[in-house]
Amino acid sequence: MTYWILLLLCFVIYLLPCLPIKILQGNFKGRITNVLVFFGLLFHAGLIYQTTFLSGIDLNFANSLLITSWIGVLLYLLINASDQHKGFEYLTLVPALFFLIINPFMSGHSYLNETFSALAILHIVFALLGYSLLAFGALFSIFLLYVEQNVRTKKLNTEIFSSSTPILNLEHFLFRIYWLGFILLTITLISGSFFSDEIFQTPLIINHKLIFSICAWLIYAILLLGRILFGWRGKKAIKFSLIAFIFLFLAYFGSKFVVEILLP
User: Is the distance from CB of 24 to CB of 100 less than 8 angstroms?
Assistant: First the structure.
């Protein structure tokens, strides 16, 4: 019962800022949205505890998405405290709503062994943080693309996306996210080679997950190097980042989806 109450409360609270409700329009929308998101994060955290930590540590496909979306919404709240990024709530809350909807229908389990070493647990934490940061970076890239289009062409479909922060500052912030996410991804790939046997009960082997992860790492590396050497920005940088994230998504979440949902 607690699970369903938390799920419903979180869903309703995240949904409200995405609806054209009169009280949520105008100058107070940002403040009201931030208050709602704050309480939504509390219920979201309670839901994660119920599904992931109440009976052991269950990092299955659905719970991993819950954690990733929670980190994404938290980052949204932290960077948009002053309501300077209008419309970004749609890009963060809508995916979170989707993950809430599908959670009850995902019945697979992936419990962590209680005998895992502290370093193995740390590897998993770094992996989740890295994936979450890079996922947030992908969403922020899309937001930045819409903001740039809105500034240049004033297209109707981009009018809801705007920012009081200069575009160059937005790009600088975006690449700080990518650098941090890239560092965590690098640590994850290196540490994974040491803890593969402990976590997955098999030595490190070359499979689709490893190949996709390496492809993502290489594309992020090219993107960051291009930024340093050639000053890459705008659409070129955004395209590289989105392609890299697609590979990363296939490597981690795609693998879990196939193993836990399609194969059983």
Answer: no
CA dihedral 37, 43, 47, 53 (to 10 degrees): 100
Q: Measured between alpha carbons, how far is 72 from 64 in angstroms, rounded to an integer?
A: 12
Global pTM reads: 0.89
Q: Tens-of-pLDDT digits for all 264 residues of the chain?
A: 699 999 999 999 999 988 877 666 666 677 888 899 999 999 999 999 999 888 778 888 889 899 999 999 999 999 998 888 888 999 999 999 999 999 988 767 777 766 666 667 787 888 899 999 999 999 999 999 888 887 777 555 556 888 888 888 999 999 999 999 999 999 988 877 766 555 555 555 667 778 888 999 999 999 999 999 988 887 888 888 899 999 988 887 766 665 555 555
DSSP designation for 155: -
CA–CA gap between residue 83 and residue 104 (Å, rounded)? 33
Contact 139, 95 (CB under 8 A): yes
CB 73 within 8 A of CB 37: yes
Beta carbons of 73 and 92 less than 8 angstroms apart = yes
**Using the 8-state DSSP alphabet, how is residue 104 labeled?**
G
Domain boundaries, the chain: 1-111, 118-264
